[in-house]
Amino acid sequence: MSDEAKPVLFQLGDPNEQIDTLLPTDLSPADIAHRLRLTDIHLATASRLGCTLGQDRRWGWYDRSVSGGATRDGQRVWVRTVTEQSQWVDMLFWTGNLEANKIVGVPKPIVLDSAETRDEDRWFRTEVMTLVDQAPASPIPAATTPPTIDDAWLDQLRTSLEALAAASTTREAKVQDDVTQQLREYFGDRIDPKVERWVASHGDLHWANLTAPGLVILDWEQWGLAPSGYDIATLYCHSLLVPETAAAIRDRFSHMLDSPDGRRAQLLAIARMLSRTRMGDYTDLVIPLHRLADEILGR
User: Fold this and answer.
1) Separation of alpha carbons 79 and 93, rounded Å
2) What is the pLDDT of residue 24?
3) CB atoms < 10 A from the CB of 71, how many?
4) Are 215 and 160 in contact (CB under 8 A)?
5) Less CB within 10 Å around the terminal CB: N or C of the chain?
């Protein structure tokens, strides 16, 4: 429901108008064909699931998904269709939102229904979810202005992450081999990569996956076991461009960030984000992330 991209909206109407005036002008013919194909699946599957879609559509990270509001049996809902090439379908991601229904004590959307469409080259998954009436705390993952949060919001986030950590799961958002490889690649032998405690985690906790001023945690595709502190480490790293917000996160969650696993988790989040700069993401965070890594490793 909240993939890593700024929302791009278009209105339904004549298909030719979608191409000429309502789709971004810098899209290639292949990109346009992809969007139209995904839109067709989204509309058809939503109708099959008994949903009447609204007019606006939101495109996800690298056009991997499209979603929007709808009504179903008189209830307002959110409908999201995600696609992946068949050879790259990871069942951890594919069913994450649905499997997160079993998590208790965490404010989050609930998947009400789902359906899949499979072609030779691509899979499509449509999910009908409860509608969240709060806006994302930031339109992009790394906040550039202070999110509308207060002490009560931070308290609820802490309680929610504690409830999540107590959930039982065999899903794995991270595994030791990957942690070791990433920490070794970026930081050599300056940190012991061995994780002491694994807990159920969201796996992608940034500001576009959190709502404010009321807290709801969005996008549960990646949830599973990860090093203790990984979620708050990820959020902290996505806060570095807003010093007052970063300070509030560090103050409230220092017991997690300053633990051995918390330091590993911060370095793991840093490595992940730095690897994404090759794709053009997080370019403004390169220096702050390096400075944070130096601070952690220098302790």
Assistant:
1) 17
2) 59
3) 15
4) yes
5) C
